[in-house]
Amino acid sequence: MTTEILISLITLIVLEIVLGIDNIIFISILSDKLPAEKRKKARLVGLSLALVTRLILLAGISWIMKLDKTLFTVSGIDFSGKDLILIVGGLFLLYKSNKEIFEKTEDEHPEKPFIYKSFSKIIGQIIILDLVFSIDSIITAVGLVDELWVMYTAVIVSISIMMMVAGAISDFISKHPSLKILALCFLMMIGITLIAEGLAFHIPKQYIYFSMAFSFLVNVIQIRKTAK
User: Fold this and answer.
1) Mean pLDDT, the chain, as a whole number?
2) What are the b/e assignments for 53-82, b being 16+ CB within 10 Å?
3) Model-level pTM?
């Protein structure tokens, strides 16, 4: 354990948590479709699956590295396995986010009872997104450090922290409908970013995180003003 490795470990843990916030938001929104007594279980199962997925992908790290190899070219754009996964995941995020926003703004009526989704259906959707977020997370880890044990440690620590805060984040989003819509808009933005990445158009992450942080700050100020 050298100072350089320690710094890399801490940096990777922070990055994994930042990348995992998207996952937490999506899991929180999906778990709200379940009865109250099953929501915590869904969050824990979802994040546990995210941990298992990341560890399995790390174990097959040589296969992950091959995902960056070009499979075919269309109109001068090279497509790799990673690109295809990002594009499909981005389209899925756009579809789900738009569907959720429509249901919460246009398709909800006081006389219409809330219909709970099945636990297995929710977990199935979480698994799909876990795979997309895991690919991005693991490739980030591979690009940042060389030691496999550092990657394993960072993934385990980051997912453990996410499990501890997932409940608080979920409750906070559930109590404030405007934050739920904002979170869904964030997911739409992430979906567009994933598609852009898959099409070899790289959007600097700091622009995405700054816009999200600014929008969240404005929303929190509005909530506090309304509360007063």
Assistant:
1) 78
2) bbbebbeeeeebeebeeeeeeeeeeebbbb
3) 0.63
CB count in 10 Å sphere of residue 18: 13
Range of the domain at 199: 3-227
Of 139, 176, 191, 161, nearest to 22 by C-alpha is: 191
- 44-80 residue pLDDT tens: 888 888 888 888 877 776 676 677 788 888 888 888 8
43-47, 93-97, 106-110: segment of lowest average pLDDT? 106-110
CA distances from 188 to 14, 118, 161 (A): 23, 24, 25
> C-alpha distances in angstroms, 153 versus 22, 134, 147, 158, 195?
21, 15, 10, 8, 29
Instruction: Decide if 160 contacts 38 (C-beta within 8 A).
Output: no
CA distance 216 to 222: 10
* Total number of domains constituting the chain: 1
Rama region for 75: left / alpha / beta (φ>0; ψ in -120 to 50; rest): left
